[in-house]
Amino acid sequence: MREIKHILEEKIQHLHLLPRRFGIKKGKNILFGPPKSGKTSLSLFISKTLKNTIYIDCIDPRNDIDNLKNQILKSFLEKKIDLLILDNYKPIFILPNIENILIILNSKQIPSDDLQLQNFSLKSIMPLTFEEYIGFSNSSEDINQLFNRFIKDGNSPEMLHSLEFQKISKKQNNMKLFFQEDYDLFALLLQFQSQKITVNQFYTYSKRFLKVSKDKVYALLTRLQNNHFIFLIPCADSINKTKKLYFYDFSLPYAHSPNPNFQAIFENMVFLELYSQYQEQIFYSQNAHFCINETIFFAIPFPNQQNIDTILKNNPYKKIIIIAINKIQKSQCQVIDFVSFALKEYVD
């Protein structure tokens, strides 16, 4: 029989617990987000601030549900639960009437018939920003070396503590486990990173390679949006125009595509940094990669004078910021390096 306290001890042994940028208030919260974004490690980091925590992974095949229910009830009656964490949540437990409960889900979609979760607060947990990546790295590398590694390895917390030869296989295995029979559809979707795409366009394209229905494509894209695996960004010029596609991990093509497109990867990387600050305020336009309030942003790894002249011509009277690999001095508009941009070492 597994004792509840041993479950928590076992789980903590195998995780790197990192303080994240997300402020999780006391109370009843649902942490959701894409795979390997750090939801479990964040919840266990929070548990360190409380004396009596119960952690249960609802899909662990070793669970004896009746026994765990009895242990939860016993701890509740003895007032020995300060925090209950239910990972990979399934409605198999009656939630005790305690102040602090953390539910971990992949999606923000709560089943309408699960009345236990109706008053919980939703919190999206995303992978690392570049600032977090630097802070959590125990490497002796300088900031430029860390930046080069960040571009290659991506923003998953798991990559920080993986050996070099493990990284690609881990990324591939994670996605195959997450998508299962839909993995080939995901690989096709990845080809549209940082591009404008509609459900119908993707369905038409995928039919050339796979036997798939439009309903299945629609359901998959909806699911991926609900767990913040993908983001479909609207056009500032018209809400009816085609949306642009970005992924939660910009580096996915390095593990799942034969021909990674660095421009698309870099643009996705810039989007995620902007999303960490502005979230739903981000749009794109016909003449700009990103529009936020009165400022327009461009993600161009290696801009030349022709790029800059075209941007200035198409966007008169606009505040323009170009994010590049390296800063350009004495330009007609602001061209900043990604590191300064991500660390907010520039005048916004």
Keywords:
globular; 5-stranded mixed sheet; 5-stranded parallel sheet; Rossmann fold; alpha/beta; single chain; 2 domains; 348 residues; 16% strand
Q: What is shown here, in short?
A:
The chain is of the alpha/beta class and 348 residues long. It has helices spanning 4-13, 39-47, 65-77, 130-136, 143-153, 167-179, 183-189, 199-206, 214-226, 253-256, 262-278, 305-314, 338-342; strands spanning 28-32, 53-57, 83-87, 101-105, 121-124, 230-233, 244-247, 283-285, 288-292, 295-299, 319-324, 334-337. It folds into 2 domains: 4-124, P-loop containing nucleotide triphosphate hydrolases (Rossmann fold), CATH 3.40.50; 181-342, no CATH class.
Model description:
With 348 residues, this protein is an alpha/beta fold. It has 2 domains: 121 residues, P-loop containing nucleotide triphosphate hydrolases (Rossmann fold, 3-Layer(aba) Sandwich); 162 residues, no CATH class. The chain is built from 13 helices and 12 strands. A hairpin with a 2-residue loop joins strand 9 and strand 10. Helix 8 crosses helix 9. The chain is globular. InterPro entries: P-loop_NTPase. This is ATPase.
